[in-house]
Design brief:
Layout: H1 2-41, E1 42-46, E2 61-65, E3 78-83, E4 88-96, E5 101-104, E6 110-113, E7 121-124, E8 132-133, E9 138-142, H2 154-157, E10 160-161, E11 165-174
Antiparallel strand pairs: 1-2, 2-11, 3-4, 3-11, 4-9, 5-6, 5-8, 6-7, 9-10
Length: about 180
């Protein structure tokens, strides 16, 4: 009889370890999916200023979709980009495309003349912009509040390359009173 009990105990311990192993495997897969999704698919980003109001306000957290092709973005779209001059990752509006003309008037004010013939866009003071045609693979990004001369955008940080456009912002996910509206 004692021999039979020993076999049962060993089988039970083996079964318990197998169950624990399956639990660890499921946990590892879930962790991989969560971190993989954040790295490859979506990323939360916190808005630090009101530069993009009324779309986003300081304190909002938005979900950035990393499913982006530069062929799918156009003038007026919101994008999430890294400005290489500072490493700042910001949500800004794509305003200038390759071939558009950045010019400065005698009063020091800068303007963007879109190459598609659409309306001229006033840029205000733009110390970091090189005047002339926007080169291939470069983009001009602006905050929505153009009256804020200290806003961090292409006027103060320079143009961004296509590689620096990391995604498109979507819904606000925090705070709850603004989420998914």
């Amino acid at each position: 009889m004692g021999k039979h009990k020993g076999k049962k105990a060993r089988a039970h311990r083996k079964s318990a370890w197998r169950g624990f192993g399956i639990f660890l495997l499921v946990l590892a897969v879930l962790a991989f999916l969560a971190f993989g999704a954040r790295y490859f698919l979506w990323e939360p980003a916190r808005i630090k200023t009101n530069a993009m109001s009324p779309a986003y306000y300081a304190g909002d957290t938005v979900l950035i979709s990393k499913f982006i092709s530069l062929d799918s973005v156009s003038r007026g779209d919101l994008v999430y980009a890294e400005f290489t001059s500072t490493g700042a990752r910001l949500v800004r509006r794509l305003v200038g495309l390759q071939g558009d003309l950045v010019r400065v008037e005698a009063d020091g004010e800068a303007y963007l003349d879109p190459s598609d013939g659409s309306e001229t866009i006033p840029l205000g003071q733009a110390p970091m912009l090189t005047y002339g045609r926007i080169p291939q693979g470069a983009y001009l990004l602006l905050s929505d509040d153009l009256s804020d001369a200290s806003a961090l955008d292409s006027r103060t940080l320079g143009l961004v390359s296509g590689r620096s456009i990391l995604g498109k912002p979507g819904s606000v996910i925090w705070p709850p009173n603004r989420a998914f509206k």
